[in-house]
Specification:
single chain; 188 residues; alpha/beta; 5 helices; globular
Length: 188
């Protein structure tokens, strides 16, 4: 993230609304929530009431340029003149970064990271005064999946999902089954 932005703000979930986040420039935001670091790229523009939230998809096929120990933000360089933007990273990618190229917000058997991302986004919407009907969740592939899920969890928002991965059994199922659901499987 430090290569993408000049300013990185660190805060806890409880202090999001009190944090000073610069406007009209892309900044990094790291939110500590339930002992996990959730990372965002944020560009809140004072010229618009519209917001696009962009989710992380899978890593690209050419992984030689990817550092899997750092956050992954698809389309971070896209410019939306009439929209503020919030890109969210999926910390699930860090858990098993050598085995999977997407995380779908699954988290751990004890903590669903996508629900945590939803909680943080709701606080950010309140902080900056975004109405749900002016929010669009956009993502492709695994990011399309998370966009659909967030659109369901945060009522009255809009979703644009490009080729969403809706059938997780088609993508890394053996790894997902072992890594994310090992606690559940052991109980059977």
């Amino acid at each position: 993230m430090d290569k993408l932005v000049k300013t990185i703000i660190k805060t806890s979930f409880e202090n999001i609304t009190n944090s000073t986040i610069p406007l009209n420039e892309q900044v990094g935001l790291i939110v500590e929530y339930k002992n996990v670091k959730f990372e965002f790229l944020i560009n809140i523009k004072t010229s618009t009431d519209n917001l696009i939230c962009l989710g992380s998809g899978a890593y690209p096929l050419d992984k030689s340029k990817i550092d899997k120990t750092k956050p992954w933000f698809n389309r971070w360089s896209w410019n939306f003149d009439e929209f503020s933007t919030i890109h969210y990273n999926d910390p699930s990618l860090y858990l098993y970064n050598d085995k999977m190229d997407a995380g779908w917000g699954l988290g751990t058997p004890e903590d669903w990271f996508l629900e945590d991302i939803k909680d943080i986004l709701v606080q950010l919407f309140k902080k900056f005064g975004f109405k749900n009907e002016n929010v669009i969740f956009y993502g492709s592939s695994a990011g399309g999946f998370t966009s659909l899920q967030l659109g369901i969890m945060i009522k009255q928002t809009n979703v644009l999902a490009d080729i969403p991965q809706l059938n997780l059994k088609r993508w890394y199922w053996d790894t997902i089954k072992i890594q994310f659901f090992q606690t559940i499987l052991r109980k059977k």
